[in-house]
Structure formats: C-alpha cells, structure tokens
Amino acid sequence: MKIAEIIKEKLGTIIDVRSPGEFMGGNVAGSINIPLQEITQRMDELKNLNQPLILCCASGNRSGQAHGYLAQQGLECYNGGSWLDVNFYQNQTN
C-alpha cells in the first residue's frame, strides 16, 4: 500500500517530528507532535500508537532520521516527507 493511501484511509498515526513551535505554526489535522530529539525517550508511547506511523517534518530530513531509528526498533513506519505533502494526501477525496 502506498503512503498516500495509508494517509487518506487513516490507517495509521501521523507523527510530526518538528519542534513544538513549528508544529503550532501549522500541522496536519489529527497529527501528534513528537519532536525528533524526544523520539528515543518516548518509545513506549510510540509503540502503543496505531501503526503504521507516518512521519513528517518540514522537508523530510528529520522524518527520515526518525524513520531510520524507528524501523530499526521494529516499528512499522514510513517517511511521509513534508507535513504539507501529508496534509495534501489526507485531504484528497476518492
């Protein structure tokens, strides 16, 4: 299944790894803000979320770093890239 379909069908959880300030400036509806630097400390929380996890940030760089780490920990996750792209996919209609 493609990332766009997972997002559109709301099959997982969207995690925004930007800073709280960036998140407050705009985010995907229903997304959860877990800044990149907090990922390791919040593993229990992440493991209990509905998977797959769709990770996003400003450009895809930080979400790519988070994806690498979380995939190594055995979580089903995808790098969604920019939060604007994830937002676009979420707002698509059939």
Question: What is this entry, summarized?
Answer:
The chain is an alpha/beta fold and 94 residues long. It is built from five helices and four strands.
Please supply descriptive tags for the structure shown above.
single chain; 38% helix; four-stranded parallel sheet; 5 helices; alpha/beta
Q: Could you characterize the architecture of this molecule?
A:
There is one protein chain. Helices cover 38% and strands 18% of the residues. It is built from 5 helices and 4 strands. It is globular. The two termini are 16 Å apart. The mean pLDDT is 95.
Instruction: Quote the beta fraction.
Output: 15-25%
Average pLDDT number: 95
DSSP helix fraction: 25-40%
> What is the CA-atom radius of gyration, in angstroms?
12 Å
Spans with pLDDT under 50 lasting ≥5 residues? Answer: none
> Could you give the distance between the termini?
16 Å
* String of helices and strands: HEHEHEHEH
Q: What characterizes the major β-sheet?
A: 4 strands, parallel
Count helical runs: 5
Number of strands: 4
Record the SSE blueprint.
Elements: H1 3-8, E1 13-16, H2 20-24, E2 32-33, H3 43-47, E3 53-57, H4 61-72, E4 77-82, H5 83-90
Parallel strand pairs: 1-2, 1-3, 3-4
